[in-house]
Amino acid sequence: MSGFKRDRQGNAKKFDGPKPAPKPKSIVRNACTPLFEHLRDELDEHHDRRDRIGKASRDITALSKKIIFSLQRVRKIDDELPQEIQADIDLRLAEIAKLLASIAPEVQNINRLRYARSLVCLEELVEALTFAHYVKTQTLIDHDELSRIVEDLARQGAASEDVAMPDASEDAAQKPSQAAELPTVSITDDDYLYGVFDLTGEMMRFATTASALTGKMASGDSAAADDAPRTIVEDMHDLGSFFEMLPLRSGNRVAWEKKLEVMRQSVHKVEKLGYDRVVRGSERPAGWVPDLSSTDQPEGLE
Amino acid sequence: MAPPMIDPALFDQLKTKIEEDTSVRKELDQIIDELNQHVAYTQGVLSRIHSTPRSKYPVLLGQVEEGIKKEVATVGKLSEFASKYPYYKYNYKWTRMIQDAISTVLLCAWLGGMGSESQPGEVCRLLTLDDIGALFSVPINLKDRDAFHITVEEYLLGLINIIDELSRLAMNSVTLGDNELAVQISSFIKDLHAGFQVLNLKNDILRKRVDSIKYAVKKVEDVVYDLSLRNLIPAKAASE
Count of CB atoms within 10 A of residue A57's CB? Predict the structure, then answer.
């Protein structure tokens, strides 16, 4: 208490109100200010974290899309992807791994779902990974296996970060790097389901280009000993029925139904392809290539 | 034989999860509905402050506190059930209702209710987030574990709710001849307005609601202006 305020007459003012009478114009301090300052710090922490996650998320989305584009250059379902495509994908996955590792400490426990909306990249990543798995094995990877892959990615990313720049790690939380104890990013049911929804679109594109360019319906290796290997048409039907049979999600009905509708269209398109192959495909001589590829296949080939 | 496209176990696993999710939502809906009824009743009782002179507040606030007790009980039920599941998965379902419940408590306390033996109620008392958490006996602003709690945003949005109500009360209190209350409300709302300026807001719902506070400030300032113009501001309030 250095002194008291005086009024115009020079008498000491009684100072019992919540705020000083002559208000300074710039920062008004009052009884509420400390309360709000505390809450501001809490909100800032939240906003900053959301921004960091959002940035990483955008990068992961972009990288996942690039993986998908690379995979769309594959023409057949085979265990071994063409070398340059595999190399390309590995490169992108390594980058994704680093990004995942950087946000992993931020999305533990309660924060995982708090920032679920900023983590839409995971849907895209699921799409890329399920598609890669399909192109290699012609099966749908299940949720648990996929989660393991993503968790491994996050751990790898953290490990490589440590080797590359041992003292530049941004998060103090990363320093005690007990390999197995490293925080990872988990894949929720929604990430998985919505990612698989998008997978149907990619399969449709894959089926279309593959059948146009190779003149065959994409299918498993004929070495699988079955007389007629399963084609992508059947797989699409399987996926279609899979989603139709699942109960309606009560969470976000609109989004779910929209995805369902898009998926149905993809199924119909592939169906049409299958029909074309059966009806017209048999009329075409082997090696006949449709118009789509006429640029790289001269007419005279027939 | 090549493996099938989709492992049948995967379908069953996902189907079970979705069904569980649906039944959790149904149960939550019931609890939230119950909370809704208590909050609506309490808000209804509180709306009578606009026609009640200050001398009759104790009786009115007693009724409000009855309603709040029921709110607290239902929030306890919600907390117990919701803590079994990831908080942010279902938070959006009840957050509005919790904000409204917080508002009723904040307003009741500001008007002089919610007193305890250690701290008697008085007009102009602003409960903090910690007070609110203690009152509802639920955690606040949880970060280290995943359970039901009241968030910073919910508290702030609840606080903004009462600003509108108080700016209305400023007018009505003048009608009831209680000019001092109008002046008190004015100074409180201006304090809060300054307080909200301290926050760094993002373009979200909180920002939108905070932007609306200035209209309440204008409304109460107009009331105080009308009073001062006619020399109707009581001496005690004027010295504040």
Answer: 22
Question: Which secondary-structure segment (H or E) carries A72?
Answer: none
Domain that holds residue A84: 39-282
Structure-block tokens of residue B204: 């979200």
Report yes or no: A239 at the B interface, CB cutoff 8 Å: yes
**Tokens of residue A271, six digits:** 């169906």
Distance CA(B75)–CA(B133), nearest Å, equals 11
* Residue A139 placed within a domain: yes
Q: Does this chain's domain B16-150 share its CATH topology with B160-240?
A: yes
DSSP B12-75: HHHHHHHHHHHHHHHHHHHHHHHHHHHHHHHHHHHGGGGGS-GGGHHHHHHHHHHHHHHHHHHH
Residue B88: both structure tokens together: 């942010």
Is A248 domain-assigned? yes
pLDDT digits (tens, 9 = 90+) for A221-275: 655 555 678 889 999 999 999 999 998 877 788 999 999 999 999 999 999 999 9
Torsion angle (degrees, nearest 10) of CA B68, B69, B71, B77: 160
d(CA B97, CA B36): 6
User: In this structure, what CATH number is given to the domain that contains residue A150?
Assistant: 1.20.58.2140
> Is A217 in contact with A203 (CB distance < 8 Å)?
no
Cβ within 8 Å, pair B7-A139? yes
CB contacts < 8 A, A to B, total 134
User: In chain A, how many domains are there?
Assistant: 1
CB B26, CB A159: distance < 8 Å: no
Place of tokens 């919505």: A194
Task: Assess if residue A90 is contained within a domain.
Answer: yes
Q: Decide if A233 contacts A206 (C-beta within 8 A).
A: no
* pLDDT at position B96 over 50: yes
Tell me the C-alpha distance between A130 and A127, whole Å.
5
Query: In the predicted model, is pLDDT for residue A38 greater than 80?
Result: yes
Task: Inform me whether the C-beta atom of residue B126 falls under 8 Å from chain A C-beta atoms.
Answer: yes
DSSP 8-state secondary structure symbol assigned to residue A105 = G
CA-nearest residue to B87 within chain A is A110
Q: B15 vs A245: CB contact, 8 Å cut-off?
A: yes
Question: Where along chain B do its domains lie?
Answer: 16-150, 160-240
Query: Which ipTM did the prediction report?
Result: 0.87
Interface of B with A in 78-117 (CB under 8 A): 86-89
The pair phi, psi for residue B33, each rounded to 5°, is -60, -40
Q: Determine phi and psi for B146, rounding to 5 degrees.
A: -100, 95
| pLDDT tens digits, A147-164 | 999 999 999 888 876 655
Task: Output the six-digit token pair for B163.
Answer: 């600003």
- Please answer whether residues B154 and B96 qualify as being in contact, where contact means their C-beta atoms are separated by less than 8 angstroms: no
CATH class held by domain B160-240? mainly alpha
A7, part of any domain? no
Higher-scoring residue by pLDDT: B240, B21: B21
CA A98 to chain centre: 15
* Homologous superfamily of B16-150: Translin; domain 1 (1.20.58.190)
